[in-house]
Amino acid sequence: MKIKWVVLGKSSPSCVEILTRTYIQRLERLIKFQYLEVIPPKKITRLPVELRKQKEGELLLKHIGGGDYVVLLDERGREFTSGEWARHLEQTALHIAGEMVFVTGGPYGFSESLYNISREKLSLSRMTFSHQIIRVMFAEQLYRAVSIIKNLPYHNE
Q1: How far apart are CA 111 and CA 53, in angstroms?
Q2: What phi, psi does 76 have (nearest 5°)?
Q3: Which residues, other chains included, contact 80 with Cβ-Cβ below 8 Å and sequence gap of 6+?
Q4: Gyration radius of the chain's alpha carbons
Q5: Among 74, 77, 103, 110, which has the highest number of CB atoms less than 10 A from its own CB?
Q6: Which of 112, 20, 130 lies closest to 58 in space, CA to CA?
Q7: Residues 6+ apart with CB under 8 A from 126
Q8: For residue 9, is it left (φ>0), alpha (ψ between -120 and 50) or beta?
Q9: CA–CA separation, 155 vs 157, rounded Å?
Q10: Local structure of residue 125 (DSSP, 8 states)
Q11: Which fold has domain 2-149?
Q12: Angle between helices 14-30 and 131-149 (to 10 degrees)
């Protein structure tokens, strides 16, 4: 299983960074995993929302290959229990040729170009969370799913 996670922006505060990195390090011991933070220029934040999403999308697309299986972390995405998601992740990974790429966008969501190339949308909750908290939550849930797949004693049913 080969997974890449592309995130728009730098994580802060440091507690978010520490927790996110903790789960990333655990993942790197179990699977081929890459975490990329794509830092947009500050001037993008002053653009109108639609143009901002377009520019952010262009930056994110540079890190996605043509054969990649793209999953957007999106509030309108599909929800799973941890066990269901582990099974779905495993089955999907078995049937794709390229890398599985998860993408966390900016505060206004994704550009149309990213929606057009995505194969799935994944929601961690129907509630809204900051992009900082989502980093920790997704890193932990990805680690939990991989530990379920590898039958490690992390998840309790």
Answers
A1: 5
A2: -95, 15
A3: 88, 122
A4: 15
A5: 103
A6: 112
A7: 75, 79
A8: left
A9: 7
A10: -
A11: Alpha/beta knot (3.40.1280)
A12: 20
Q: Which residues of 115-139 are buried (b: 16+ CB within 10 A; e: fewer)?
A: eebbeebbebeeeeeebbebbbbbb
pTM confidence score: 0.94
The per-residue pLDDT for range 75-124, each reduced to its tens digit, is: 999 999 999 999 999 999 999 988 999 999 988 999 999 999 999 999 99
**SS3 state of residue 59:** helix
CA distances from 67 to 34, 58, 101, 118, 122 (A): 17, 17, 10, 11, 19
Backbone angles phi, psi at 16, to 5 degrees: -65, -45
Extents of the domains making up the chain: 2-149
